[in-house]
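ok so i was messing around last nite and threw this chain in just to see what happens. nothing serious, just curious
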Amino acid sequence: MPRRGFQFENQIEKVIEYIEARGYHGHKNYAKRLQDGTYVSG
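result:
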């Protein structure tokens, strides 16, 4: 079973790459998750 939220986080990273390729700045505040993908904080 894939980590919960993994696909969504990958999509965010793709959007940030798109923004940066156009000369703007973008970053993601990485959430802290347990091994099974359960959200902890962040």
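not much to say yet. The chain has a mean pLDDT of 79.
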